[in-house]
Amino acid sequence: FKVTDTENSEKETKIEVSFTYNGKEQTLTSTGNGPINSLKNALIKSELVSANIVDYAEHALSKGSEAKAAAYVQMKRCDNGNETFGVGVDSNITIASIKAVFSAINRLYK
């Protein structure tokens, strides 16, 4: 996937994320109070998934400016109540968080 993350004058974060879904390239755009909220809003608008973020946590995996971060997200499907966790790791915490959301979605909808 590819992510563009910008902040507008209302302090909202706009996200544009491109990914492959069922073999087709998808590009979603939305705004929210941060990148994860923006991604969740984009996914809801797209009607590709219907799930809520229940919990979110992150931490550094080591020290220093080159450290990677791990992000953990718990999500719950709206249609059947199933819950799962997703994990993402990257040197950019925003990318790690987005990877965690897609990890959880892949597990919820497999």
Strand segment count: 6
Q: What is the number of helical segments per DSSP (H or I, 4+ residues)?
A: 2
H and E string = EEEHEEEH
Overall geometry: globular
Terminal CA distance reads 19 Å
The biggest beta sheet reads: 3 strands, antiparallel
Give the fraction of residues assigned to helices.
25-40%
Q: Which structural class do the helices and strands define?
A: alpha+beta
| Overall average residue pLDDT | 90
Structural Rg: 14 Å
What order do the strands of the largest sheet run in, or round the barrel if closed? 1-2-3
Strand content: over 45%
Layout of SSEs?
Elements: E1 2-7, E2 13-21, E3 24-32, H1 35-46, E4 51-60, E5 69-77, E6 83-90, H2 93-108
Antiparallel strand pairs: 1-2, 2-3, 4-5, 5-6
Question: What does this entry look like structurally?
Answer:
The structure is a single chain. With 110 residues, this protein is α+β, with helices and mostly antiparallel strands. It is built from 2 helices and 6 strands; from the N terminus they run E-E-E-H-E-E-E-H. It has helices spanning 35-46, 93-108; strands spanning 2-7, 13-21, 24-32, 51-60, 69-77, 83-90. The strands form 2 sheets. A 3-stranded antiparallel sheet has the order 1-2-3, covered by helices on one side. Helix 1 (35-46) runs parallel beside helix 2. The longest helix has 16 residues, at 93-108. The model has no long low-confidence stretch (mean pLDDT 90).
